[in-house]
Structure to design on (247 residues):
């Protein structure tokens, strides 16, 4: 599905939240490395896709009405065989339907479990006075507990990106704390610049959340992503308002 199709589908369904797969597709076209994800519409298909990817596997609920998938019981990780995938598929659907009985469920997203790395987050929100603001920090649960993040106004320069990374208190973790694999800081800088460019070129985006991103010695991988569109993009019936990503 290309950019135009993604936006038109969201407008047709009157939703501002893009699905994980839609969000990842936009980021991939912006040159950002994302974990491949495929949609399963049945338990049988989820098992088949798991075998295609190779274990271990992660399953996640795919629904435009379930934004915080983990809180809804919609994520199962480290599934190591077909039996575990089948049970996880059933458990996810049961739990989510109990918590969100009115939710539209597209299916279950299947993706290969990424190898461990330093977890970081890159996000964007719009300030009423300054416009788009990029956020960087330690990712996963750390961003909620430690709130160790830095901010800069779009567009970023390379110096901005470098300073954002180095000024968080958790920077020693990125350097390879106590023998852990270090993150490649120049690659993280490049990722921040790509996100800044993506945001600048697409004013239709209201919010962006890429979390977690696994940072490695030799690269990065965005494991989950969420894009929120401006309300007027959905209500606007003029199809000329479309994404224009400059890669």
């Amino acid at each position: 599905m290309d950019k135009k199709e993604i936006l038109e589908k969201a407008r047709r369904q009157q939703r501002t939240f893009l699905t994980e797969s839609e969000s990842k597709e936009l980021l991939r076209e912006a040159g950002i490395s994302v974990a491949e994800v495929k949609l399963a519409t049945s338990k049988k298909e989820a098992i088949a896709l798991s075998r295609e990817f190779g274990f271990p596997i992660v399953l996640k609920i795919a629904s435009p009405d379930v934004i915080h998938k983990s809180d809804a019981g919609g994520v199962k990780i480290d599934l190591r065989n077909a039996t575990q995938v089948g049970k996880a598929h059933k458990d996810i659907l049961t739990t989510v339907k109990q918590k969100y009985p009115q939710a539209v469920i597209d299916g279950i997203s299947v993706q290969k479990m990424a190898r461990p790395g330093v977890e970081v987050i890159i996000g964007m929100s719009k300030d009423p006075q300054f416009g788009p603001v990029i956020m960087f920090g330690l990712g996963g649960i750390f961003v909620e507990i430690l709130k160790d993040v830095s901010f800069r106004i779009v567009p970023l320069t390379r110096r901005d990106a470098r300073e954002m990374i180095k000024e968080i208190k958790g920077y020693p973790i990125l350097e390879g704390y106590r023998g852990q694999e270090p993150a490649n800081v120049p690659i993280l800088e490049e990722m921040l610049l790509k996100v800044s460019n993506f945001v600048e070129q697409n004013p239709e985006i209201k919010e962006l959340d890429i979390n977690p991103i696994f940072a490695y010695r030799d690269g990065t991988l965005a494991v989950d992503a969420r894009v929120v569109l401006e309300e007027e993009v959905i209500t606007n019936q003029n199809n000329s308002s479309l994404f224009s990503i400059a890669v």
In short: The longest strand covers residues 205-215. DSSP finds nine helices and ten strands in the chain.
